[in-house]
Amino acid sequence: MNLPVSPDSPVSPVAEARPEGFLRVQAALRQRGHAQPPRWLDVAARTSQEAAEALGVSLGQIAKSVVFRRRADDAAVMVIASGDRRVDEKKLQQHTGPLGRADADFVKSHTGFAIGGVSPLGFAPAQGLSLPQLFLDADLLRFDLIWAAAGHPNGVFPMSPQELKQLTGAEFIEVVQA
Predict the structure, then answer these.
(1) Counting runs of H as helices and runs of E as strands, what totals does the chain give?
(2) Phi/psi at 25 (nearest 5 deg)?
(3) Is the whole-model pTM more than 0.85?
(4) What is the pLDDT of residues 65-90, one digit of tens each?
(5) How far apart are CA 16 and CA 63, in angstroms?
């Protein structure tokens, strides 16, 4: 999959120093042998809608990261879901037990990323915290190509849903609202 970048594209090749989270994702992708390096958007895309508009793709092709706080042990649980779907907490709790909302500080300390740029790989949890428990929503399989955040609101990377599974080691489950 070769994705050219034209001069008019909202996606710029990486040519200058980038933020630490973006560089972690770039290194994780390279380490896993992913053919497509992360791209830098000329505009910040903190929401799935902003990312879809910047990339010129459908909202569902944005693989958004949704983080929850597991009540039993205060661990992070993360679902990568299509941008056009809402995660159904009751369905997810069948896999995790009771969940609560995760605020911005919780997300940053448990993933190493700020909300708006949370990547499905390249985590850097604060000292003493474990990696998030990660799930992929099966609705992502509707698409041949999806885009995920690359550690910063301006960073994204492309892959197929199956490549996302290979990159993360997470399983597909059905956890979105009908």
Answers:
(1) 5, 9
(2) -65, -45
(3) yes
(4) 999 999 999 999 999 999 999 999 99
(5) 26
